[in-house]
Amino acid sequence: AELLDPAVKGTLNVLNSCANSSSIKRVVLTSSIAAVTYNGKPRTPDVVDESWFTDLDYCRGLKVCVCVSLLPPLMPY
């Protein structure tokens, strides 16, 4: 609860702010930074969206075993 409560409250604060903004069209919440980190793209994007999903072939090339073993069931393709 010590870590979970602030995370939930923080997420709800962001979502409530987005809901009150007329310029926000959608919100993408990832379960882990690993979902969008390993793709070979620069680390300073203006927008992170579904095109940023981790590339499994890139992970295999880097031998990032955790991503290769955990992400395939979660990937949309």
UniProtKB/TrEMBL annotation:
Q: Which UniProt keywords apply?
A: NADP, Oxidoreductase
Asked if the Swiss-Prot or TrEMBL record annotates the protein with the keyword Oxidoreductase, the reply is yes
Q: Which GO terms describe its molecular function?
A: oxidoreductase activity, acting on the CH-OH group of donors, NAD or NADP as acceptor
Q: What is this protein called?
A: 3-beta hydroxysteroid dehydrogenase/isomerase domain-containing protein
Top-level lineage group: Eukaryota
Q: Which InterPro entries match?
A: NAD(P)-bd_dom_sf, NAD(P)_dehydrat-like
Instruction: Specify the species.
Output: Gossypium laxum
